User: Which sequence fits this backbone?
């Protein structure tokens, strides 16, 4: 049941489940608790709590028999299946929400570019059958849709490497350092949370790493077997990026135009500023990787701390400006004049600034 | 101790499903233990009729929520009775093979939102009761893939229900660049998750036009408006195209840049033409759409924009802002 979201007991879910359970148990005298729990996707404890309630339930008004269902802890026995008339035990039609939840998910999974073709075909057949069986209840499912993103070819190779237990060689782009590195990885699993990722043991860093498939520049399946060490699979429902408490803290202040930062970066806090902006505190193992963010923000925000990160963004901007024209750089206060190293001879660029820029 | 709600709902469901004639409210009240215990003979306190009626209405709504079709029938002497006919509640015959069952099992696990996760499991359980094969354990990953649909936005559930029931809503919405949220009156059509974010498409009543909203920018509560839709709902709602245009995916122009050798892989991956300049720099032609200036600035001194002048100006402008700190 790993990865299944833990939810508080809910009377509606339990009622829904018990209604299906009576239909199911009626056909299977002596069913094993373990098997029934697995078939219903619930824990054995949840099943046992249902079995506590069912003997208090009955079909007919006044004087009808209660369901005589009990368990010896291993198997489930129903001593009076006739208490539930044959037609009161028939499977129930799908509710609108049930049809929507199942159909939207099935359609989304079917669009995954790297899904095995046989699985996709099975899913499409199943989806069509469920649509027919759901009838009108399927209607509202068109009001909800999900698209997963995955790089088809890379996905297929990773999926194959996992099932054949083979090592992968990849060239991988790291935006934090703007560099492409080669590494060998032992893939563990594929995860789709918006983007699609492969979680793997990286042989270069000898650590668990997560790689986004659309950043894989090149991939090859190696002949060597994959041998990731036993690692405990994390619950990824809270997001893939889970900064550690000991990671350095970065404080960013953004104006209204930079509020998107709080949507894209997991953070500890985001406090409202009087001008409609935010003061965002986040943690990252590599603060230098946020230089990109500081540059992108422009006038919409600035790094408050650490100071070296703020300085490095400023230096990078000055260096970049130097490649355009001395004019731009000159009016920057404290400009140190490292023009020579910026872009080498940027001949074609010089002197082509039009008047508009100067006015800004 | 009060009888658990699940037991009460289960008994009400079984009574309504098991009967061949409509049962009156009084009959149900006198025969279901949970009602007898709270409202039965000897417990008649002032106002208990009202509280029974409220509980009974809520219970019927809950059962309808999980798919039960409950009919209300008025008898000749004017008494109202209730029943859940088998014909209208029976799942039509459906036969799925082991592969199809395994595929649905994978799909049923993708929701991380409680209500939809519960509904998807409920659907699978009903199919299981109808004989869905169990040979392949659906809760073991079939493929190595573990797709998950993230839902972190509080606005999701009320909007999902409003789309389902075609109910207009009002919520406070903060545009990407606005300092303050403002109320928006919307007839919600559809929700779509793209690249891990949820969007709502609908009719914006104030602007009299179709609009797409990002759920993470909705602040505060989504409130229902008890009125009907005023604008027609289109057959096809295009959320993705709208969002893609925000993100500059629909670039229709070209830009010319210089890029330092070895850097800027994503720019190279998108380039329509690359020319080595021989001085450690390359010249690239890349698609130019909304947002390109901000992206190019991320590469700092490794990118120099050559053309068009408008893009150069935007990039220089941004760099100046950073340089001034």
Assistant:
């Amino acid at each position: 049941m790993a990865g299944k979201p833990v939810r508080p007991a809910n009377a509606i879910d339990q009622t829904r489940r018990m209604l299906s359970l009576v239909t199911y148990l009626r056909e299977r005298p002596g069913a094993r608790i373990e098997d029934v729990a697995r078939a219903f996707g619930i824990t054995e404890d949840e099943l046992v709590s249902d079995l506590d309630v069912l003997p208090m339930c009955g079909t007919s008004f006044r004087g009808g028999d209660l369901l005589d269902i009990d368990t010896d802890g291993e198997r489930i026995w129903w001593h009076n299946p006739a208490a539930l008339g044959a037609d009161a035990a028939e499977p129930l039609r799908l509710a609108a929400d049930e049809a929507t939840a199942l159909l939207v998910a099935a359609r989304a999974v079917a669009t995954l570019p790297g899904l095995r073709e046989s699985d996709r075909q099975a899913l499409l057949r199943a989806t069509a059958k469920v649509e027919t069986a759901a009838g009108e209840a399927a209607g509202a499912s068109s009001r909800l849709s999900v698209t997963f993103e995955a790089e088809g070819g890379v996905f297929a190779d990773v999926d194959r490497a996992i099932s054949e237990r083979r090592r992968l060689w990849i060239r991988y782009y790291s935006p934090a350092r703007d560099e492409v590195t080669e590494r060998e990885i032992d893939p563990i699993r594929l995860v789709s949370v918006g983007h699609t990722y492969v979680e793997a043991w990286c042989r270069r860093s000898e650590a668990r790493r997560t790689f986004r498939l659309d950043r894989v520049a090149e991939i090859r399946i190696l002949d060597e077997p994959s041998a990731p060490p036993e690692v405990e699979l994390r619950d990824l429902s809270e997001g893939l990026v889970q900064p550690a408490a000991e990671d350095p803290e970065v404080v960013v202040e953004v104006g209204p135009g930079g509020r998107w930062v709080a949507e894209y970066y997991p953070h500890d806090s985001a406090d409202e500023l009087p001008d409609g902006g935010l003061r965002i505190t986040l943690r990252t193992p590599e603060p230098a990787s946020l230089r990109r963010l500081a540059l992108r923000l422009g006038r919409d925000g600035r790094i408050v701390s650490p100071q070296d990160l703020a300085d490095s963004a400023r230096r990078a901007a000055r260096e970049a400006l130097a490649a355009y024209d001395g004019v731009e750089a000159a009016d920057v206060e404290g400009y140190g004049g490292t023009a020579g190293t910026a872009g080498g001879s940027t001949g074609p660029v010089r002197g082509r600034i039009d008047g508009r820029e100067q006015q800004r | 101790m009060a009888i658990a709600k699940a037991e009460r709902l289960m008994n009400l469901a079984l009574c309504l499903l098991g009967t061949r004639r409509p049962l009156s409210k009084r009959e149900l009240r006198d025969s279901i233990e949970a009602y007898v215990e709270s409202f039965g003979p000897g417990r008649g306190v002032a106002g208990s009729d009202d509280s029974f009626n409220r509980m009974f209405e809520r219970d019927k709504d809950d059962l309808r929520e999980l798919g039960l079709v409950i009919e209300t029938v008025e008898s000749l002497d004017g008494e109202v009775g209730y029943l859940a006919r088998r014909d209208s509640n029976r799942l039509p015959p459906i036969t799925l093979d082991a592969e199809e069952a395994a595929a649905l099992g994978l799909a049923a696990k993708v929701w991380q939102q409680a209500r939809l996760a519960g509904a998807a499991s409920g659907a699978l359980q009903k199919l299981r009761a109808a004989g869905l094969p169990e040979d392949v354990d659906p809760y073991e990953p079939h493929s190595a893939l573990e797709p998950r649909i993230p839902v972190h936005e509080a606005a999701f559930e009320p909007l999902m229900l409003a789309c389902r029931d075609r109910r207009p809503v009002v919520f406070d919405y903060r545009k990407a660049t606005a300092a303050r949220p403002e109320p928006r009156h919307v007839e919600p059509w559809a929700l779509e998750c793209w690249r891990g974010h949820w969007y709502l498409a609908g009719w914006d009543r104030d602007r009299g036009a179709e609009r797409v909203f990002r759920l993470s920018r909705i602040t505060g509560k989504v409130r229902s408006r008890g009125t009907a839709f005023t604008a027609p709902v289109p057959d096809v709602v295009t959320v993705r195209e709208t969002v893609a245009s925000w993100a500059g995916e629909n670039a229709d122009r070209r830009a010319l840049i210089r890029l330092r050798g070895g850097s800027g892989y994503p720019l190279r991956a998108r380039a329509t033409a690359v020319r080595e300049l021989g001085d450690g720099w390359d010249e690239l032609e890349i698609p130019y759409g909304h947002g390109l200036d901000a992206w190019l600035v991320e590469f700092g001194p490794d990118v120099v924009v050559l053309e068009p002048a408008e893009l150069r100006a935007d990039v220089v402008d941004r760099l100046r802002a950073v340089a001034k700190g």
User: Anything to note?
Assistant: Confidence is low (pLDDT under 50) at residues 1-8, 327-360 of chain A. The CA atoms of residues 154 and 213 of chain A lie 7 Å apart. The first helix of chain A runs from residue 11 to 26.
